[in-house]
Amino acid sequence: MKPLADDAWRAWNPAELMNRLDATFCWYVVSGWALDLWHGIRTREHEDLEFAVLPEGLGHARALLGELVFFAVDDGRFTHLPPFARPHQGVMQFWGADFGEDCWRVDMMLERGTTETWAYKRDPAITAPRAGMIRKTAGGIPYLTPEAVLLFKARHRREKDESDFNLALPKLEPSQRARLRGWLQHCHPGHDWIARLQGTQAAC
Q: Is the CATH code 1.10.20 the one for domain 1-144?
């Protein structure tokens, strides 16, 4: 089965995703949409919808999203993942295609943590209690905390990543700034967000 074009996105929004999933397993919105759930408003357009699950929740998530056909994404290569098939070890990303509408709906990620502990998938040395890393909106949509989202964004420094950081910075709590600063010092020494986080904290 062939995948759709890379840019054939007409993603659901987080509320549409929540209406299809349930609270019996760990899942949460990540990336730019997670920041907007934290802000409480939509600050920009989002070309996709990324969410994360634990490896043991992958099959359940796929069953609940049975209207979609999933493809494993690995280094730019798309491989159809038949129902109930297990992905190859090390594959962490899966795009869900709605062939009836000729578009991608979701980008599902596997994370490396446990039900008790969140782990940064690019460096498992960075961990934190899960209870403090996943928040929920008033409507019950789970999302990753902003400092963790910004840690992911610090690597690529795209225009939207810089914009997201600039908008989030004044709203970060002192504990969030300190945590993100420490993570950046570990993962990206010399990153200019480090000084900006320090300066903002010193001004509070």
A: no
